[in-house]
Each structure stands twice: as C-alpha cells, then as structure tokens.
UniProtKB/TrEMBL annotation:
Gene3D superfamilies: 3.40.50.880, Glycosidases. SUPFAM superfamilies: (Trans)glycosidases. It comes from the Bacteria. It comes from Horticoccus luteus. CDD domains: A4_beta-galactosidase_middle_domain. InterPro entries: Class_I_gatase-like (IPR029062), GH (IPR017853), GHL6 (IPR028212). Pfam families: GHL6. This is Alpha-amylase.
C-alpha cells in the first residue's frame, strides 16, 4: 500500500496550443521557493494535459508547439533537490489532439453525435478505451515510466464508464452477446471496456517497476466498487467545496474511504470556485478549515492549483497554501496511521454497488440526508457499502430507499440477535415487493397512504422535538399498525391532496383532526419512520426532522450517545485512534459558511471568517480508560473527568480546528 505525504499540490497545466511562451518564465529556484513558502512536500506535475500536449520531448505524442525545453524534467529535478515528491499526471479520458486527429476514437452518444463542433466542451469529446486510443495512451504511459523509472507515481484522469454507440462498439457488443438497444446491456459493456482500460493502463504503469503507485481519478470514489478501486495504490477524494461538491461531500466520502485498506487524501482547490479559474483565490480561512477537515476525517491533504502557461509559480497562491500547510505540518504527528472510532454505521441505500459511479456522481439523497443529520448531531459514523460487516457497531442506520433483499434481511436479523440496534425509514425494513415487513419493527404494514403531504406530531418519547403541533412533511408515508412497538411519532393527514379542484392557500391543506396511523414506532432494538424522513431532510433542510431522528437515537441508546457537546450544529466532531501511540485524538471543527453567488447552477458556500468558540464541552463514549488529556499540537494539559466509559472535558477556546489527545 502506498503511504501518502500530508501536504500535496495538484498542479494543473491544461494549456492551449494557441498560447505562446510556454514555460518561458520557469525558474528552478523560483519553483522551489514557492514550494517552500507553501510547505509543500508532494506536487503532481504534468506529462500530458486535456488538450493532448506533452510537456517533455516525446516519440509517442506531441510536445506543446510553444515549449522549447523539457519542462517536466526540470520540474522533477527541482523537486528532487529539495526532497519533494512529484507524481506524474497524464490525461487519459480527454485528449483533444487525439480526438480531432481520430474522430472515430471519440465516444458516440445514442443520438449519433460525437461532439458539437461549436460548443466549448471538451467533456463532449471523451476518448474511447475500446479503440486504438488505448494503445496510444499506454504507449505514452510506458514512455514516461521508462524515462523516469524511479517516479513517485502516475495519476490518470477522467476515468469512467461511457455508453458508447460508435460503429465499432455496436459490433463488439453484438459479438459479446449484448443488445445495444437495451440501456442495461450498453452499461454492462461500458463496464467491460472500463476494466479493459484498468488492466492495460496498470500493466503500462508497472511495466518498469511493479510497485509504481497509480491512481485512476474519476472525481468521486464509487461506493462499493471494490473491484475497480483495487486497481489503485491509494485514493484521492476530489471534492472542491465551492466547485459543485459542497462542504458536506468530503466528510461523507472520507467516512467511506477510511473503511477501505488504502491510504487516502482529500483534494480541494485554491480557487474561488473550481479548476481552471486563473486569478481565482480562496480566503486563507477556507483553506485552513478544509485542510483541517481532511485531517479530522483521517485523510492527507491535496490542494489544486493551475500553473500559468509561462511556468511561473504564483507567489500569492503559495502564500495562501502555506498558511494552511504550516498548520497541517504542526499537526501531522497526531494524524498519521489512524483508525476511526465510531459506534454508528450508515449503510448506503445504493444498489448494485459493484458498478463504477464516477464523475461528479453524488450519493443517494437518503444517504446524504442521514449523513447531514449525523454530522449536525456531532455523532461520528462510518459509511458502509453493501459488502461490509456490521460487527462492532451499536446502531446501524438503514436509509429510506434501502432495498431489503433476503440476504440483507438475514444480515439485519443476525445483527439484532447480537444485540445491535436499527434506525430505519421508508422502504428500509420492507420486503422487495413492499408488501410486508421483512424485518419486524414491532408493527404491521397495512399499505401506503395516498395523502401527500401530511404531518408529524411529537409524543412523550420525543422530548427533543421543541414543536408540539403538527409538522408538515412531503412524500407520503407507509400505513403501519403497532403490534409490540410504541408510537414514537404520531401522524396527521391533510384535509385533502392539492389538485385543480381541491386546494387551500399557497401550498397545501392544513392538518385535519383525528388520529391516523403512526409516523414512527419504537421497539427495544428498532426505530422505524414511515416517511422518507432522510430524503426529505436532504430536500428541505427542515431541522425538526433531525430532532425526531435525534430522539430516536437517544431512545435506542438509552440516552448514551457516543458524543455529547454544546457545539453549534454547523460544527463537526470526529474521533480517531493511533494504536501505536496508544491514544485517541478527538477533532473539533467549526467555520461558518455563507452563500455568495452561484457556480454551475449551485449556490457557492464560502468560508471567510473564522470565529473562535469558547468553553466547548465535549463528552465521549470511549472503550479504553484514558490516563491524560492535552490540547495538541500546543501541548497544554487539559482537565478531564471519566466515569462509566465517558470522558468529558472543556476546551477553553479554539478557532477553526482543535485536536485533543487522549492517551490510554
């Protein structure tokens, strides 16, 4: 397994052939000075960019027409002089030179179009790995590893499944027994092509040195796609918060990555929005927080930059990066070789997880709803794929779109037999036909309500819900009748659904008097919500839905949640363990976000002001007896109490990120 360094830069260099003077201002000393100012100890540099140009002499591809020297070699030499690693980047899925020279190498969409010639969209010109392009790409890779046999790794970009309807692909599908008229068959063929690429590319990468690190980037780590992930030596979690991913994507992705065997890093950008934004800069506060969050969730750090075509490193950028990385450097001893400490598991509701879901694919809304609730409730959790064991967890959350197959039902019942607890919603406990409960929550399924929206009503079992009147929720509910379970939340229906004949006010009819079937039930080991409460939380952001789920967790865990704190809901808590050092490290994060403008059709959240928090109280359920507590890296001792497995302490003041070392 490849062990990563903490302070990496991903130095994009996608440079048009129309721009003159490529690398004309490159200076080894200036390049090295920028890395030193930035506290950078690894930087990914370019062999070939999306435009298709190479930045070194090549017998396979074409060197940029306005580059007069071997830029990549000089960058590598500069890095090695000062002990900085330099993985080498090759664009794999995009190559404009190859696309224009060989149109038949480009993926053809179902409508028969390769690309729209007057649109500036190189993602419309994805190269086919089921064409001679794959041989061309592998020859480029071999040329690089033969030139630099002691390289620090190969980064291959824009990797994914492509539904290709080119003539060659149609014929190959038919020979393989696939029906090109069926989308599912075309997708399966696309998977075959992807694995053809993985095998060929890895053979090229390792043709000189078998232990050469490699990463195939897709912009998102596909949950459960272990066969595909196994072609990597490590994972890089591309997640630029202001570039479309948002601030809640990385924590969710990291909580899955840390369950896997590979070292991994988080990848943000120095840009205000996303890649290729020349003249775009984040506030230092944002990078400080983003890098701290990477550490808090067990990741190494990578910050994206784009080198100016003239080859000169931007001083402002590396001062910006340095402000974050100087902090990371001080914290590294408490952040390496870590294991997660979590008693709650979120089992993804995505199905067929073996398939590669790259690109900017987001997780299911139900998964995201659970994740956001747990983050805001400050409860550490792990994201599990459908293959993972549930051993060691107190509570397993099954989101409202979860598909309960017979195998999963058996797994759930075995978990309950061992004393585990289940928090579920919607379809999660139903059989695949949604005709009855496959796992009994202490209630009988009677059917599906036609009422939408309807209303949640708090009970004595949900004191955490501050509103005692009816609370609207969309999406409809399953009709259930308690048998052995207690009613956790009541349900009210509206007077009628809104139609052209029946409507009231601006949105929907109010709640009608009279009891109907419950909205949620609670047994000794299971809490079940009849609505898609997680999906609805992701869709509407109504905090009262989270209050109901919080109440369910409290009842399931006898009010002994893994974390208790007075932090605001926008703060984050995570706990990691360093077994070799015999210590836990509790991470506390806080930075307020503000919406400023839009990018790619989404609101842009920025972090600009880091507000100190005072007298932060934290109580952690931990399996080992703690013998000392101190704030790190500062080293100051921290008073704490310990009783019945709960370690409690108060952080006098912190800004953005504080680590607390709990030695055992």
């Amino acid at each position: 397994m490849h062990h990563l360094r903490f302070r990496q830069v991903h130095l994009d260099f996608h440079t048009s052939g129309l721009i003159p003077g490529i690398g004309s201002e490159f200076d080894k000393r200036q390049f090295q000075e920028a890395l030193k100012v930035g506290h950078v100890n690894s930087i990914t540099v370019f062999s070939k960019c999306h435009h298709g140009w190479s930045y070194h002499p090549t017998k396979v591809g074409r060197m940029h027409p306005h580059l007069k020297f071997d830029l990549l070699a000089r960058q590598i030499d500069a890095c090695r002089e000062i002990g900085v690693r330099c993985p080498i980047y090759l664009s794999a899925g995009l190559d404009e030179l190859a696309a224009f020279a060989h149109p038949t190498w480009v993926v053809k969409r179902k409508d028969g179009v390769n690309w729209k010639p007057l649109e500036v969209d190189w993602f419309g010109r994805i190269l086919r790995f089921n064409s001679p392009y794959l041989d061309y790409l592998c020859a480029q890779i071999r040329e690089v590893v033969e030139r630099w046999p002691d390289n620090d790794g190969i980064f291959l970009d824009i990797i994914g499944t492509q539904r290709d309807y080119s003539d060659d692909a149609l014929q190959e599908m038919k020979r393989a027994g696939y029906n090109p008229e069926l989308d599912a068959d075309v997708q399966r063929y696309a998977e075959d092509v992807l694995y053809r690429y993985f095998r060929a590319a890895n053979a090229a990468v390792k043709s000189v040195r078998k232990d050469t690190p490699v990463f195939h980037n897709s912009g998102h780590i596909s949950l459960g796609a272990r066969k595909a992930l196994a072609f990597n030596s490590h994972l890089e979690l591309e997640s630029l918060p202001t570039g479309g991913w948002g601030y809640d994507h990385f924590p969710m992705s990291a909580r899955y990555a840390i369950t896997q065997k590979w070292d991994f890093l988080g990848m943000t950008g120095k840009f205000h929005n996303t890649w290729g934004e020349f003249g775009g800069f984040k506030r230092p506060a944002a990078l400080r927080y983003e890098c701290s969050a990477m550490l808090a969730y067990g990741a190494k750090c990578s910050i994206g930059d784009q080198l100016h075509p003239n080859g000169e490193m931007n001083r402002d950028t590396y001062e910006l990066i340095g402000a974050a990385y100087a902090e990371v450097e001080r914290k590294e001893p408490w952040c390496d070789y870590v294991k997660p400490v979590a008693r709650i598991a979120l089992v993804s509701c995505e199905v067929n997880q073996e398939r590669w879901r790259g690109g900017h694919a987001q997780s299911a809304l139900a998964d995201e709803g659970v994740s956001r609730m747990l983050l805001e409730l400050h409860q550490p959790f792990l994201m599990l794929d459908e293959h993972a064991s549930w051993a060691g967890f107190d509570v397993v959350v099954l989101p409202d779109k979860f598909v309960m197959t017979p195998a999963k039902a058996a797994k759930t019942k075995a978990f309950l037999a061992r004393g585990g607890r289940i928090l579920a919603a919607g379809t999660a406990l139903l059989d695949e036909a949604h005709a009855s409960f496959a796992v009994d929550p202490g209630a009988k399924l009677l059917g599906r309500s036609a009422n939408d929206p309807d209303y949640l009503l708090a009970t004595t079992l949900t004191p955490e819900v501050p509103v005692k009147s009816a609370i609207v929720i969309a999406g409809g509910a399953y009709v259930i009748k308690p048998t052995t379970a207690r009613v956790l939340a009541e349900r009210r229906e509206s007077y009628f659904n809104r139609t052209w004949e029946h409507y009231c006010s601006h949105q929907h009819a109010p709640d009608a008097p009279g009891a109907v079937s419950p909205a949620a039930v609670l047994g000794k080991q299971i809490a079940y919500f009849a609505h898609d409460i997680f999906t609805q939380y992701r869709a509407s952001g109504q905090p009262l839905y989270r209050d109901f789920v919080n109440a369910a967790l409290h009842r399931l865990l006898d009010d002994k949640l893994p974390v208790a704190t007075n932090l605001p809901t926008t703060a984050r808590v995570n706990v990691l363990e360093q077994p070799k050092e015999r210590r836990y490290v509790a991470h506390v994060l806080y930075a307020p976000t503000a919406v400023r403008g839009t990018f790619a059709g989404k609101n842009v959240e920025i972090i600009e002001d880091l507000i100190p928090l005072r007298n932060t109280e934290v109580a952690l359920q931990l399996p080992r007896k703690v013998k000392s507590a101190r704030l790190v890296p500062e080293g100051s001792e921290l008073a704490f109490t310990q009783a019945e497995g709960v370690v409690a302490f108060t952080i006098p003041e912190f800004t953005s990120h504080q680590m607390v070392e709990l030695a055992y």
